[in-house]
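User: Show me an example of a complex going from sequences to structure tokens.

Assistant: Sure. Here are the input components:
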Amino acid sequence: MQVQVKLFAFFREGRFIKEDRELANGTTAGEVVDSLDIDREEVGVLMLNSKHCQFETILQDGDVYAIFPVIGGG
Amino acid sequence: MAERYTRNGFSQAEQILLQRATIAVIGCGGLGGRTAELLTRLGIGSLLLTDPDIFSESNLNRQLFCNMETIGQAKTTVVAGELQKINPGLQISAFVQAFDAGSIHGADVVIDALDSGNARKQLATLCRQQNTPLVHGAVNSWYGQVAVEQPAAPLMDTLYPESNGSTTPPNVLPMTVALVASMQTAEVCKYILRQKSPLQGKSLLQCDLLHCQYELIDHTP
């Protein structure tokens, strides 16, 4: 299946801003985070098709999946 | 209208709304110092400033009122003094302490200029208890975010999950701080002037200064 993955803020550095990725059926949101070598502790918000989702959420063909880091400085 | 406000371009009635407003600025470092200065120049009548810290050398890259003379001095005391030079008529309450319920009491709007997720969530809780909108801003390197949390639409718990316990100070670039502080001030201004904004409880603005991308993200659960 194909899922569009969007990264935000410093998650983009050394990776990409937006990319269509071929994933195995049953892939979870968390597994995509892991495959990108992103520390789950650094993740703030996960959104699937503009709705909040969890690491355990199973992705579907055609989904748009966005990963946002925690941004905390001031 | 006072000459100092003529170039704002607001009506007399609008300028009076700003003059009658009280804004609490929680954190007086990068974001807080700049928002406080912008709010003062805009014509806000009363500011409540809270920060327990003193200026240190690592603040020099981004904190407006940090310089070689103010290092070692309490941030709120320095900021209050500098704002009084801009407008002696400004009402300022400066608290050199960690924020609590009293820090935002009587405020029309609260500015989140803190630097940790847990503190931001605690401030959001206080704002909900006092039914006061919270204008959130945060920065990491080239990236920033801005949102307005309305008491009925909590956001901070979503942005800052419980599992995040990082204590490493993030990199914070001065131009990102200036941008986010300006956007926070604009949201305060629109709220006080009763102008609608996409950020009022509906969207999160993500700013990417490195790739010049600015996106409104709908955060409705």
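The lines above are the inputs; the final block is the predicted structure for all two components together. Chain A touches chain B through 23 residues (CB under 8 Å).
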